[in-house]
Automatic annotation (TrEMBL):
CDD domains: TPP_PYR_E1-PDHc-beta_like. Keywords: Oxidoreductase, Thiamine pyrophosphate. This is 2-oxoisovalerate dehydrogenase E1 component beta subunit. Its EC number is 1.2.4.4. It comes from Deinococcus radiopugnans ATCC 19172.
Length: 340
């Protein structure tokens, strides 16, 4: 779906479209899915009366009661383990891990239980659960509140991994995740919670997991990212287009599955690609995207595939602007590709 197509979808909605921010889109998706399906339950640290550390679940306990929206002990292993058990028994659990950095204690339950349930049972059981978690930097949270650990989970067969950057996508993808039959790790870029604003329809809709979005079309270079870096991609594209460079901006939105066909088609058209994420460079998911590009579009490349990422250090407390890719580093990588 292109950005233009997305706008048309919103305009064609049966209800009036509204401009909201990303965190409100998450809250609305949860509320509507709980209203639609009595099997949906929400839980995690402080998600009940307080509404979560970022207020994503504010008001939901009052609307649906303490049996469906409840607080848990400070134990990620228990949160994920309970979610797996609920999912196997027929519920649709949505578990919140307060920060993506805290998912470690629940790692075994995610990769050894949730991800394997369909396969180890020969299809007799599934684990249709969603783990929501704020991810990434940009809020000066330091190295225990700002990491981007998505690559750990993209490496695990059986999981779907999603990271939206717009309110439209956040709402539509979260609804799709809750309705699906597979475990989904739903990363929410915390620096976009209130910074990202956009129109959403007034009617029920979903966004298919696994389809990327073309945010702007171009012919000279493909600029590809996801999550919190997307506004920086747009700023870099603006700077380049002011110099006469036509940039195609692609938002992956979904990492597993990811839209290889759309990316390859774009690079075959432009001949150049720069990949951007804020996770550390080593074993970055964008390395898989780069390999797939050179495998499928090698003869079309006019320059090596570029990559802009975070540095291979623990996330720094105060040097957010240095650590994060930012429009300057992105633009420099694009210029290097254009001048190759």
């Amino acid at each position: 779906m292109t950005a233009t197509q997305e706008s048309q979808d919103v305009t064609a909605a049966s209800g009036e479209p509204r401009t909201i921010n990303l965190i409100t889109a998450v809250t609305e998706a949860l509320h509507e899915e709980m209203e639609r399906d009595s099997r949906v339950v929400l839980f995690g640290q402080d998600v009940g009366a307080r509404g979560g550390v970022f207020m994503a679940t504010a008001g939901l306990q009052a609307s649906f009661g303490k049996q469906r929206v409840f607080d848990t002990p400070l134990s990620e292993a228990a949160i994920v383990g309970a979610a797996v058990g609920m999912a196997v028994r027929g519920l649709r659990p949505v578990a919140e891990i307060q920060f993506a950095d805290y998912m470690g204690p629940g790692f075994d339950q995610i990769i050894s239980q949730a991800a394997k349930m369909r396969y180890r049972s020969g299809g007799q059981y599934t684990a249709p659960l969603v783990i929501r978690t704020p991810s990434g930097g940009g809020v000066k949270g330091g190295h225990h509140h700002s990491q981007s650990p998505e690559s750990y989970y993209t490496h695990t067969p059986g999981l779907k991994v999603v990271m939206p950057s717009t309110p439209y996508d956040a709402k539509g993808l979260l609804k799709a995740a809750i309705r699906g039959e597979d475990p989904v790790i739903f990363f929410e870029p915390k620096r976009l919670y209130r910074a990202s604003k956009g129109e959403v329809p007034g009617h029920d809709y979903t966004v298919k997991i696994g389809e990327a979005a073309i945010r702007r079309e171009g012919t000279d270079l493909s600029l590809i990212g996801y999550g919190g870096v997307m506004p920086d991609l747009e700023r870099a594209a603006d700077a380049l287009e002011a110099e006469g460079v036509s940039v195609e901006v692609i938002d992956l939105r979904s990492l597993v599955p990811w839209d290889k066909a759309l990316v390859v088609d774009s690079v075959q058209k432009t001949g150049r690609a720069v990949l951007v994420s804020e996770a550390p460079r080593i074993s970055n998911f964008m390395g898989e995207v780069a390999y797939s590009i050179q495998e499928a579009a090698f003869d079309s490349l006019l320059a090596p595939v570029g990559q802009v990422a975070g540095f291979d250090i623990p996330y720094p407390y105060v040097q957010d602007k240095i650590y994060l890719p930012g429009p300057n580093r992105i633009t420099a990588a694009c210029v290097q590709a254009l001048n190759y």
